[in-house]
Amino acid sequence: MLTLQDSNKRIVERFNQNFIEDKDDSAYEALVSASFIDHTSGPAAPFDFITKIFRPAFPDAKVVIHDLIAEGDKVVARKSYEGTHSGGFMGIPATGKFIKFMVIEIIQLRDGKYVDHWALADTVSLMQQLQSS
Predict the structure, then answer these.
(1) Is 89 within 8 Å of 99 (Cβ atoms)?
(2) How far is residue 23 from each of residues 16, 81, 89, 129, measured CA to CA in Å?
(3) Cβ–Cβ < 8 Å for 75, 68
(4) Which of 45, 47, 52, 126 has its CA 20 to 30 A from that of 23?
């Protein structure tokens, strides 16, 4: 029998695989609570950022999960995003460069769904990769 922590880690893996990599928007609805709050950028920001900004810029993006640590109802993920910069991103036209940057996030889950999210992304490294010649 799965512990709550193991179950929550599987939900985080599923979110990253299905919503981020496979571009299955129904996974977002299935795995994110209607009362979800992203403490990093606002209530609807993750869905809008991923679907309207990140996917068009990095259509082949992959998520590599390096560590998942769970305690209580929270999961900490240390992961990296990697992909080809094929569309405009944050004012930078497509460069064709392969990028990779790290993210550390904390996800709080309730009843099998994301309810709270905090994240730190290495956006300095990302922007340096996009702007370097």
Answers:
(1) no
(2) 10, 14, 18, 24
(3) yes
(4) 126
Q: Is-above-0.85 flag for pTM?
A: yes
In the chain, the DSSP E strands lie at 32-38, 62-71, 74-84, 98-110, 113-121
- Amino acid (one-letter) located at 4: L
pLDDT, tens digit, 9 for 90 and up, residues 4-39:
999 999 999 999 999 999 999 999 999 999 999 999
* Residue 4 near residue 46 (C-beta atoms within 8 A): no
Number of domain units in the chain = 1
Q: Which amino acid is at 96?
A: G
| Residues 57, 98 contacting (CB under 8 angstroms) | no
Backbone angles phi, psi at 22, to 5 degrees: -85, -5
Whether residue 39 contacts residue 116, with contact meaning beta carbons closer than 8 Å, is answered with yes
pLDDT tens digits, one per residue of 75-113: 999 999 999 999 999 999 999 999 999 999 999 999 999
Q: For the domain that residue 45 is a member of, what is the CATH number?
A: 3.10.450.50
Residue 39 phi/psi, 5-degree rounding, is -75, -10
